[in-house]
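W.,

You were right to be curious about this one. When I first looked at the sequence I had no strong expectations either way, so I just let the prediction run and decided to look at it fresh. Below is the sequence, 124 residues in total, followed by the output.
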Amino acid sequence: MITGIGVDIVKVQRMRNWRKIPGLLERYFHPHELAASLSKGNSAELSLAARFAAKEAYGKALGTGFEGIVLKDIMVNNKFNGKPEIHLYGTALAAFETSGANRIHLSLTHEQDSAIAMVILEEV
């Protein structure tokens, strides 16, 4: 049974602006997630935008937004085959456990100037 759905869009320019502010990316992104995104060279901001959209979509799927959640406790990465997945830690994991869901589905897409994420929470 689906317990929550969230969708979000992020402009890539937002991530370009954030990169200019010392310490801001570290505030919102898990260290492994940030390192993986920044290693993508010219696609770094696109990767960051998609991952931030996933965090926003996760909060919407919970139905609570980011109430009590530290954003870097949500890590988005890709499996070996490229499929995106969310890993939760600390505050984000506690919110998930409280939600009643036990499975997360994530889809990411992006173009030159925007990234979109969709998160579905499911109880199986």
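Here's what jumped out at me. The radius of gyration is 14 Å. And, maybe more interesting for your project: The chain has one domain: 2-122.

Coffee later to discuss?

I.
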